[in-house]
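Work Package 3 (structural annotation) set out to generate three-dimensional models for the target panel prioritized at the project kickoff. During this period the team completed the workflow that converts sequence records into discrete structure tokens, so that structures can be stored uniformly alongside our sequence database. As a representative example, we reproduce one entry of 242 residues exactly as it appears in the project archive.
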Amino acid sequence: MDAGPYFLLILHIVAGAISLAAAAVAIVSSKGRRLHRLAGRVYVLAMAAVFASSVALSLATNDLFLMTVGIFSFYMVLSGYRALYLKQPAASLDLRYRVGALDKGAAQFTLIACSAMATYGGMYWYTEPLAPVLVVLGSVGSLMAYADLKRFRKPPSDPRAWFFTHMIRMLGGTIASVTAFLVNTGDMLPPLARWLAPTLIGTAAITIWVTYYKRKFAGGATPETVAEVRLRELPEEEEDAI
């Protein structure tokens, strides 16, 4: 392997290991507390490195699976992280807390890229071994990005929507990363288990978690009572004006 792709592979592996470790810390730590926020930031930064290296490696090696998972997983993580900033976009004068070019650009890019991959997988269904992966991840990614673009124009009426978006997207990105890790390194597991186990286990965990918090909210709890929530980090004079 040439020096360039070899360096990218090492960067990809190291960043992937850091992201999985940070995700584990964020999951088990108290939600909203300093350790959780720190682990979340490390996770997002590591996933950015994973995304950049995966795209570069996929172009160098013609690996569509790597590119698909890289785009899909990073958009889930990025949009999940940005959900923390977009709790009340209309109430903030700070551009960081409003829907901006990063949010729209990432969603548009993901919509185009994932739609193209799903289309490619459909066209070469009988000749491309990874066609089902391209179709499934491409379809889910494009629908998710399209839903986000609609949400940017018309924010959801539920004031707790950001809570579930953050949780589901961050965990979903972790599931995609674990799947990619097992597919590439889990030779001791049957191929079907490598593909399905993270999704089945992760989806069940997300469903249980979402149901748990929905019941708490139905009982009168708010996000502020179940986690340390920072609705906005605004100057005092702006907070007084809202």
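Residues 233-242 have pLDDT under 50 and may be disordered.
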